[in-house]
Design a protein that fits this description.
heterotrimer; A alpha+beta (159); B alpha+beta (735); C alpha+beta (279); B: alpha+beta; Aldehyde Oxidoreductase, domain 4; six-stranded mixed beta sheet; C: 279 residues; Uridine Diphospho-n-acetylenolpyruvylglucosamine Reductase, domain 3; Enolase-like, domain 1; 2 domains; five-stranded antiparallel beta sheet; 10 helices
Chain lengths: 159, 735, 279
């Protein structure tokens, strides 16, 4: 069943954290706006709106992306995973290593970290530091984050 | 005992933690700000464009302010909304709200502020011309001086007099969560919830501008994504704006700055220029420190006088010198106002001093380690204000430890062979020794008398009621640990109340490295008071205390059980605000930092290869959190030293994006090695001294000293960008 | 959203070039909410054109599709072996979050003078395939740009493929000078190659477009001896025209380009070596 759309609105169906969702949104909305203001998933943060800070990182079809740079119409049919899909056990390593302070960059950091942990072969060509360069943090020296990735990668995420 | 984990950590790591923009306020409007396009002038007209149906919008200007059009802080010089004059670009003039953010964005573009310009002043280092004067006769907002001994006589008898001028640039806080505030009406009460460090600053400012007493305003902190001082003073401005819109709309309003607006319109670290004229004996002993400090305050006073105060007290550094004269001034310019930023003047003055110490060493042919060793304060000697230090810390041993930990001597030798094999890379080592006073300056704590309550709840759990905000530094975790230790209970039975001015007493602001040291001590005393009210002795701990709490509630149904504490000055502390003599702080934390850098002579880019931070901070209450504070501060200071460059145009920052205001990424910083020496401070919570700001002071001079060592020039200003270094090196080539 | 190239091209033709093609969106979407005027334009979403997604190695070329991302090339071991400067460039474009969305074709179409991908592709003699209603046209990448943000691509044409010839490369180097070590916009970019086709020296952020430096290439082809960075000054002066902007200064650009060029080439060219002052 499709509701008639208001002018400027579109309907978008995608898979969010393993569940099918259909949203009716402003055609100019970004994936970030849709997650936060339409679907109430406020875990994903906006830090800069220009794809620099990585606070809005989500996984889209298996890769980390800045959700502030994804127009919602491009999410059609995609698999999107946000920080809301993350279980406590997956982030114990980061908690113990001091990987979060103020927490504003943290959801983005977590999504990149867990992507690395799930795709450990990327460590054959890249250092953790290079892979984390797209997540700006103003509270730490990143060492707590890097150590958290190392610990999580060593234990398959369970930390 | 294992280190307790950050209390709210899992909520942050799984996205459950709620920040102000995450609050679901049904039917709320979005508020936005229309700002001055001119740096100084008279507002002739505010034009509302024809293409907009303004009846759909809530519009607020200065006429909608119920109380005085003033932001209450120290001075009352800053208006809430400019009425007839503006003093800086981006000064707020009109507020607009609408249920659609996009509509709001479009509408504010259609409002034009027409200003008849007046002569503005942008360079704080130049004496203003008559037509540029806007405060007193010289635009000086605030001045302080310190005099110790006989400076002229000491300069006259010194073997050498070494002079230098040092400059530091502005710095943007770049908290990852931008400034944001929500406001609504709960009956007659204006409720504010948002991102802030100091709920009672916000409350006081709201009461003043809204013409209400405390019963008509309530301020609640929401989870705050970083502050660094940026959410000390500015949230008051934004809270009043949001409240004005909510009052006029009769609905909830949110104002969330986007990054560009946040960078353009909010405060930054004060730019500085510091002159040193130092009398020194041939053996390196300092006999006279003549120091002149100038800060750019920007267009309004904000906290500049207090920044100046901390700046002057730290300007002489951790050295014993009998003759000191320091004169400091904060000058008005038509730049966006500068405000609180981690370190609060001390990073600026200690940058100058520590760079100058290396210049002196170079001039005298002394080793930079040795000249510091010969001058560091020993117990029994005094600082510039005459504060006699007697805290049991061996500052020379701390310096020696840093030299050993960083393998200073071995690395110097290794650099020689590295240079033989490298076509264009040069390595160098530098260090800085410094200090940072914990808590408010001078008599501040005594005047403001912070309060704190500890509640005993019916189920035997314990609640901490304080206005101290968690902004990432870990206060919730520290406070729970302090209660657990004091009462012998498990930390899991301790809850930390949300800072809400309707519930918590005024513990004063979350600033000045005072939370653990000063307020943590109040917390211990409130725990003691709670125990006393229960008729228990200090030997009664754990379940005995909880049991007593439960019993108390049975006997006193419906009543609240509160242990209370109010600030008491530690004994033997005396401060004279008029002469700036005496004990400026209850305790100083001490540091020696060592930086190793590599300069790429092709690009003139400097990279920090290794960094060792050794400090004495009293007792460390939580190793993970304390280490995180030090590491993060060092990285913020690396940014300030090498890359964070505010580009100015007419007193406004031009590079207001993350693509052009550059902060360090993972690849720009090495792991920061942190070592603590611990001499418990008897009057600090759990024996702690303040440590949050300390790491901002040492890195910049250590890094520049390392660059000087690497390439043989004497850089005197930061940020030392590649462009600056290229210029210095070209100049060096030419001479 | 079109799912075939034919559909996409007919939409473009119908709208007479008024539609803005969007692939990864990493340039178009920057600061999107504040650029509300642009919300009213029509966007042609290319993300459904599966036929243009993959890159492939033919006998004589690497073919990059319109939707091939930076990350696709970063993760291709063949690219790392044969054309490392493509991988080097891709790894400096933002970070993983940008590399996984940003496309090589988009990097070309955005026409930024600072484009890192364009820099390496141009040094490898890439050829751009432009498809329009009137057929397919091939343009050499080094002839594509006409001026700042201007190119020899009509609004009704799409970049469908980029073809990079597989040659024996005796030398290839990519150097990006940014304001930090990751996630920086290029202040000076250089890609240098040497093959049987001769030397290629390409600079970014030094002119209104990414640009081949023909005077420098001639110096190298002719083996003109150079004993310090200053030896390239005249050629740099004729090849590029750096400006002062918010990121750096013209003086810095010129000076650093000479130094980087000198040190990169001194590694492999015996006729380029330090005389006096090497920096």
């Amino acid at each position: 069943m499709t509701m008639p759309l208001e002018p400027g609105q579109i309907e978008v169906a995608f898979t969010l954290n393993g569940r099918e969702v259909v949203v009716v949104v402003d055609a100019a909305a970004r994936l970030l706006d849709t997650l936060r203001y339409q679907l109430g998933l406020t875990g994903t943060k906006e830090g800069c709106g220009e794809g620099e800070c990585g606070a809005c990182t989500v996984c889209m079809n298996g890769n980390p992306v800045n959700s502030c740079l994804v127009p919602i119409f491009q999410a059609r049919g995609c698999k999107v995973e946000t920080v809301e899909s993350v279980e406590n056990e997956a982030v114990f390593a980061l908690l113990g290593s001091g990987g979060t302070q103020c927490g504003a960059c943290t959801p983005g950091v977590v999504m990149t970290v867990l992507w690395i942990v799930k795709n450990r072969d990327v460590l054959e060509t890249h250092s953790v530091r290079e892979l984390m360069a797209g997540n700006l943090c103003r509270c730490t020296d990143y060492d707590g984050i890097i150590n958290g990735v190392d610990r999580a990668a060593a234990t398959g995420g369970a930390g | 005992m294992s280190t307790p984990l950050r209390r709210e950590g899992l909520d942050k790591l799984t996205g459950r933690e709620r920040y102000v923009d995450d609050l679901d306020l049904a039917g709320c409007l979005w508020g936005m700000t229309v700002r001055s396009p001119a740096a100084r002038g008279r507002i002739r007209e505010v034009r509302f464009g024809d293409g907009v149906d303004w009846s759909e919008f809530v519009v607020v200007d200065f006429r909608d302010i119920p109380g005085p059009n003033e932001i209450r802080l120290i001075e009352l010089d800053q208006p809430v909304l400019a009425a007839d004059r503006v003093r800086h670009i981006h000064e707020p003039v009109v507020l607009v709200a609408h249920s659609s953010r996009t509509m709001c964005r479009r509408a504010i573009e259609q409002i034009e502020i027409v200003v008849d310009p007046e002569p503005a002043v942008f360079d704080f280092r130049v004496e203003p011309r008559a037509e540029q004067v806007q405060h007193d006769s010289d635009n000086v907002l605030s001045r302080i001086s310190i005099n110790k001994g006989d400076i002229e006589a000491a300069l006259a008898r010194a073997d050498h007099v070494v002079e230098g001028v040092y400059e530091t640039g502005a710095q943007e806080h770049v908290y990852l969560e931008t400034q944001g505030m929500a406001a609504w009406l709960d009956g007659d009460v204006v409720v504010i919830q948002g991102s802030m460090q100091c709920p009672f600053y916000v409350l006081n400012a709201l009461m003043h501008a809204l013409g209400r007493d405390a019963s008509g305003v309530r301020v609640v902190q929401s989870s705050t994504g970083g502050g660094f001082g940026g959410k000390e003073d500015f949230p008051s401005n934004l809270a009043i704006h949001t409240a004005l819109l909510a009052l006029k709309a009769g609905r909830a309003v949110k104002m969330i700055y986007d990054r560009a607006e946040d960078m353009a319109a909010t405060t930054k670290r004060h730019p500085s220029r510091v002159r040193h004229r130092t009398g020194v004996m041939s053996d390196g002993r300092l006999v006279a420190q003549d120091i002149e400090v100038l800060l750019d305050a920007g267009a309004y006073a904000t906290l500049s006088s207090v920044v100046l105060s901390r700046g002057i007290i730290h300007a002489g550094g951790p050295y014993a010198c009998d003759n000191v004269r320091i004169c400091v001034r904060a000058v008005l310019t038509n730049s966006v106002p500068f405000g609180a930023f981690r370190g609060f003047g001390a990073p600026q003055t200690q940058f100058a001093l520590e760079r100058h110490m290396d210049v002196i060493a170079q001039r005298l042919g002394l080793d930079p380690v040795e000249i510091r060793r010969r001058n560091l304060i020993c117990d029994g000697q005094s600082t510039a204000t005459g504060q006699v230090i007697n805290d049991g810390t061996d500052r020379v041993a701390l310096l020696d430890l840093a030299v050993a930990e960083s393998k200073f001597v071995e690395k110097k030798a290794a650099h020689v062979s590295f240079h033989a094999g490298s076509a264009y890379c040069r390595r160098g080592l530098g260090l800085a020794t410094f200090m940072h006073g914990g808590g408010f300056t001078g008599s501040g704590e005594d005047t403001l008398k912070a309060k704190l309550h500890v509640g005993g709840c019916r189920d035997g759990s314990i609640e901490v009621l304080s206005a101290i905000t968690e902004i990432g530094q870990g206060t919730k975790t520290i406070f729970a640990s302090i209660v657990a230790e004091r009462l012998g209970v498990d930390a899991s039975v301790v809850t930390i109340a949300t800072p809400d001015t309707a519930r918590v007493p005024n513990s004063c602001p979350t600033v000045a490295s005072r939370s653990a040291m000063v307020v943590g001590r109040l917390l211990e005393r409130a725990c003691d008071d709670l125990r006393a009210r229960l008729g228990l002795t200090p030997e009664d701990r754990g379940e005995r205390v909880q049991e007593a709490i439960r019993e108390w509630h049975v006997l006193h149904p419906g009543e609240a059980l509160l242990g209370k504490a109010e600030y008491e000055r530690p004994p033997n502390i005396a401060w004279d605000e008029k002469t700036y003599r005496g004990d400026a702080y209850g305790a100083f934390a001490w540091g020696t930092y060592v930086a190793e850098v590599e300069v790429d002579l092709r690009t003139c880019a400097c990279r920090v290869l290794s960094f060792h931070a050794v400090q004495e901070v009293g007792r460390v209450l939580n190793r993970t959190l304390a280490t995180g504070q030090i590491q993060g501060g060092v990285v913020q200071a690396i940014g300030w030293a090498l890359m964070e460059d505010c580009v100015w145009e007419q007193g406004a920052m031009k590079n207001t994006q993350f693509t052009n205001y550059i902060i360090p990424t993972t690849l720009d910083v090495p792991p920061i090695s942190v070592t603590f020496l611990e001499t418990p401070y008897a009057f600090g919570g759990g024996g702690a001294k303040g440590l949050g700001e300390l790491p901002m002071d040492g890195p910049a001079p250590a890094i520049l000293n390392a660059v000087a060592d690497a390439v043989g020039i004497e850089p005197v200003s930061i940020p030392l960008t590649p462009e600056q270094l290229l210029e210095l090196l070209s100049h060096d080539d030419a001479t | 959203m079109p799912t075939t190239l034919g559909e996409a091209l007919s939409v473009l033709e119908e709208l007479k070039g008024d539609a803005v093609p969007i692939a990864g969106g990493t340039d178009l979407m920057v600061s999107w909410p504040e650029r509300f005027i642009e919300h009213e334009r029509t966007y042609l979403d290319l993300s459904g054109l599966d036929e243009l997604r993959a890159h492939r190695w033919t006998e004589d070329a690497l073919e990059i599709g319109a939707l091939t991302t930076f990350w696709d090339i970063v993760r291709d071991p063949q690219a790392a072996r044969e054309m490392p400067i493509l991988v080097d460039a891709a790894r400096t474009v933002g970070a993983v979050q940008i590399q996984s969305r940003g496309t090589w074709a988009g990097n070309i179409a955005n026409a930024s003078p600072a484009a890192d991908g364009v820099l390496s592709m141009m040094a490898l003699d890439a050829v751009v395939e432009l498809a329009g209603a009137e057929g397919v046209e091939e343009v050499h990448l080094d002839e594509l740009y006409l001026g700042y943000k201007q190119m020899r691509k009509r609004a009704d044409q799409l970049i469908t493929r980029v073809r990079i010839p597989r040659r024996t490369l005796e030398f290839q180097s990519f150097v990006k000078v940014g304001s930090r070590r990751a996630q920086a916009i290029t202040k000076i970019g250089l890609a240098i190659t040497r093959s049987d086709a001769g030397w290629r020296v390409v600079a970014s952020s030094m002119a209104p477009t990414v640009k081949r430096c023909c005077a420098i290439e001639r110096m190298l082809d002719d083996r003109v001896p150079v004993d310090g960075p200053g030896g390239f000054a005249a050629a740099i002066g004729s090849d590029v025209s750096p400006i002062d902007d918010i990121r750096t200064t013209a003086v810095y650009r010129e000076s650093v380009m000479a130094r980087v060029l000198f040190h990169e080439l001194a590694r492999v060219c015996p006729w380029i070596c330090a005389g006096g002052d090497s920096v």
